[in-house]
Amino acid sequence: MLLQLSALLLWLLLPTLTCCNESNARSALFKSNSETVYDAARIARTLVDNSKLSIGNMATIFPDDGSELSSYPFSMQEYYASCHSNGSLTLIFLPISRHSKNIIHGRPHAASISVTATVPAASRPRVSLLGNVTVFTETSKVPDLATIKECYLAKHPDARWWLPDDEDAAHLAYWARFDPHAVYFVGGFGGLHYIGYIPLEVYQEAKADVGLLDDSYTPFREQVQQ
């Protein structure tokens, strides 16, 4: 009789034990497949380098000049082109723009540029690059000018109307380079994806993967969760 009761009890508990074991196994699988900082760096470089639009959200700070908006943040979309192997970005610096005014009067000439996945969502990756802007007021001092120009126009053909050193351009413009000093990454939800800073050297050495984040891409960790 005791043996029969034990067998019945085991039979009743089996679904619970199976559920718990499956839950533990799934948790272990999530943990073992969580994004590493190196995964995050590769995804971040893919977001920035292979963006279809190459338009990021730039943030700057109004100069501390006693004006009404002094020290307030300012954020707006900005063209960029990833033309450097180390992750630095090419910009066209227009002195007339609000961002340019904030940058040139700031010490250092600081800005941040954030880029999101093609379809922004809480579960999708995004990255914020925080760094410094170098403005080349003399075109002759722009390193690899021909390559930089070709790279930028490949991303933004409409920019031909406001290129630096063009007497017929709509506005005065200079070439500029944005050099990231810090990289903050949010891969999605924290249980599966990397959230935090990526060491600069890891970001600079990472390589973009063209097919990693296209519109049909579903991260393996999300497939497991389903």
TrEMBL record:
Q: Name one Pfam family in it.
A: CREG_beta-barrel
Domain (CREG-like beta-barrel) ranges: 37-203
The domain of life for this entry's organism is Eukaryota
Q: Keywords assigned by UniProt?
A: Signal
Please list which residues make up the signal peptide.
1-20
What PANTHER family does this protein's entry cite?
ADL397C-AP (PTHR37273:SF1), CHROMOSOME 8, WHOLE GENOME SHOTGUN SEQUENCE (PTHR37273)
Name of the featured protein? CREG-like beta-barrel domain-containing protein
Q: What is the native source organism of this protein?
A: Coprinopsis marcescibilis
